[in-house]
C-alpha cells in the first residue's frame, strides 16, 4: 500500500474540482444571463450612496411584490442604462425614470425620440400604450452630468 502525503491528495482533489467546474463558453445554459460586472463598474449599491438611494426611492411607487411590477434597475449616470425588457406585446406599461445628482440625461424608451431629463431626483413617467415584445430603455449622460439613475417598468391596469 502506497501512502501519499496529505498535501498531494489535497492538490489532486482541488485540481479535479477545478476541472469539473469549468464550463464550455459556447454552452448557453452555462453562461450567466447578465454579464459579470467589470472591475471598473461603479454601479452604486442601494445603501452606500445617498444619490442612488434617492433615485431608487423616487421610482419605487409599485412594490416588487405587486403583480404590476415588471423590473427595475439602478446605475450611475456616467455608466448609463441599457436594458431590453421582455413584455407582453400590445399591453400597456409605464416606465418610471429618476436621476439624482447634477446635470441632464437623455432617456430613450422604445422607438420614441430621446427626451432630456434633469437629475433633480424627481421621477418622470413614460407611458407605453401598446408595448412591443421587447422594450429597449436607454439612459445616457450629457456632458457634466453625474449621480445615480434608477428606472422601473410596471404594467398598467386597464380601466
Question: Layout of SSEs?
Answer:
Layout: H1 6-20, H2 50-59, E1 69-76, E2 81-86, E3 93-109, E4 115-128, E5 134-141, E6 146-155
Antiparallel strand pairs: 1-6, 2-5, 3-4, 3-5, 3-6
How would you describe what is shown here?
- This protein has 159 residues and is an alpha+beta fold.
- Helices cover 16% and strands 40% of the residues.
- It is built from two helices and six strands.
- Strands 1, 2, 3, 4, 5 and 6 form a six-stranded antiparallel beta sheet that branches.
- A hairpin with a 5-residue loop joins strand 3 (93-109) and strand 4 (115-128).
Taken as a percent bin, the fraction of beta residues is 35-45%
Number of strands: 6
H/E element sequence: HHEEEEEE
Structural class comes to alpha+beta
Whole-angstrom Rg: 22 Å
Low-confidence stretches: 1-43
Shape: globular
Q: What's the overall average pLDDT, rounded?
A: 77
Number of helices: 2
Q: Could you give a short account of the major beta sheet?
A: 6 strands, antiparallel
What is the CA–CA distance across the termini? 80 Å
Share of residues in helices: 10-25%
Amino acid at each position: 500500500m502506497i501512502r501519499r502525503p496529505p498535501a498531494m491528495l489535497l492538490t489532486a482533489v482541488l485540481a479535479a474540482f477545478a476541472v469539473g467546474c469549468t464550463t464550455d463558453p459556447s454552452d448557453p445554459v452555462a453562461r450567466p444571463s447578465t454579464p459579470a460586472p467589470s472591475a471598473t463598474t461603479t454601479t452604486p449599491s442601494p445603501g452606500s450612496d445617498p444619490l442612488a438611494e434617492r433615485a431608487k426611492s423616487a421610482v419605487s411607487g409599485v412594490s416588487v411584490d405587486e403583480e404590476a411590477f415588471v423590473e427595475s434597475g439602478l446605475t450611475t449616470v456616467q455608466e448609463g442604462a441599457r436594458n431590453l425588457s421582455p413584455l407582453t406585446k400590445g399591453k400597456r406599461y409605464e416606465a418610471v425614470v429618476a436621476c439624482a445628482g447634477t446635470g441632464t440625461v437623455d432617456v430613450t424608451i422604445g422607438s420614441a425620440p430621446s427626451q432630456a431629463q434633469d437629475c433633480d431626483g424627481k421621477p418622470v413617467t413614460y407611458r407605453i400604450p401598446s408595448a412591443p415584445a421587447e422594450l429597449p430603455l436607454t439612459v445616457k449622460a450629457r456632458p457634466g452630468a453625474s449621480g445615480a439613475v434608477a428606472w422601473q417598468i410596471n404594467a398598467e391596469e386597464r380601466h
